[in-house]
Amino acid sequence: MFKQRVITAVILVLGFLGLLFSLSSLHFSLVVAPIVLLAGWEWSNLMGIGATRHRLAYITLLALALAAAALILNLFASLDVAMAQNLCLAASILWAVIFLWVQGYPSSAILWSPRPVLGLLGLLLLSFTWVAIALLVHLPHGAWLLLFAVVVVALADIGGYVAGNLFGKHKLAVLVSPGKTWEGFFGGIFLQCVLIVLLSQFMPQQITLTMLVALVIPVSLYSVLGDLFESMVKRHSGVKDSGNILPGHGGVLDRIDGLIAALPLFALLFLLLSPF
User: Fold this and answer.
1) Torsion 33-37-42-44 (CA) sign
2) Rounded to whole angstroms, what are the CA distances from 25 to 22, 63, 80, 181?
3) Mean pLDDT of 230-242
4) What is the rounded (10 degree) CA torsion for 269, 270, 271, 273?
5) Can you spell out the DSSP letters for 35-67?
6) Which residues in 193-202 are b (16+ Cβ under 10 Å) and which e?
7) Which residues contact 25 (CB under 8 A, 6 or more apart)?
8) 91 and 125 in contact (C-beta within 8 Å)?
9) CA–centroid distance for 255 within its chain
């Protein structure tokens, strides 16, 4: 199982890097769209939609939402950065509300668990994620910015996994995700601090240590929130994995749950900090 997990991870990383650094900003944004739709297919499963035609109808709605976002952003001409920034702000505010739902589970389920609400949440969160990706790759040094964001989320995940397995005793959110611990949480934060210190040695002078902390730590916290939210939805729906398309990893949502929460905030903070 571990070997299969490693092989899948290596293939995913190589594929991601190959596409990110070989495609134009527009083409990369378009290539990501089918992956978002696949995540939407898995989200429809978490909603409890069984009939294939109903799941296809949901995917059609998500595709229309992505198309509308592309038009609003003026994707095929000159990307409207201000509009994209506003959408990332809306996403970050929505995730702040989701944090309250995670804290209040299971009582909060009455607010978010009805199928129409879950369906709308899926459309919004996945569309916002795609907007954040399109925004980041269209910025100067966009490929490196997106890679930076992905590394921040990956380190939070890796630190949490390793520290949780080695030292985990105190549960982080037992009703939401019994496997996650405070030790794992701080393990992820520790790796973020290491990343900040390393980056501070190589970044241009205008990118200060304070700026890196203001960018990395909140994004790391949001990535944990994304993971907890998907765990909460799966737990409430009685689903172990969002899918089985990735051997050893489960579904697409299981791999990108942290990114869904973190990427809009990363893009928003980067623009607000204006390091370049």
Assistant:
1) positive
2) 10, 19, 14, 38
3) 86
4) 80
5) HHHHHHHHHHHHTT---HHHHHHHHHHHHHHHH
6) eebbeebeee
7) 79, 134, 137, 138, 142
8) yes
9) 8
Per the CB < 8 A criterion, the answer to whether 235 and 269 are in contact is no
Q: How far apart are CA 24 and CA 95, in angstroms?
A: 30
| Reported pTM | 0.93
Q: Which residue has the tokens 């898995």?
A: 42
Q: What is the pLDDT of residues 53-105, one digit of tens each?
A: 999 999 999 999 999 999 999 999 889 999 999 999 999 999 999 999 999 99
* Overall number of domains in the chain: 1
What are the tokens at 148? 């930076």
Q: Is the peptide bond before 34 cis (omega within 30 degrees of 0)?
A: no
Number of residues that make up the chain: 276
DSSP 140: T
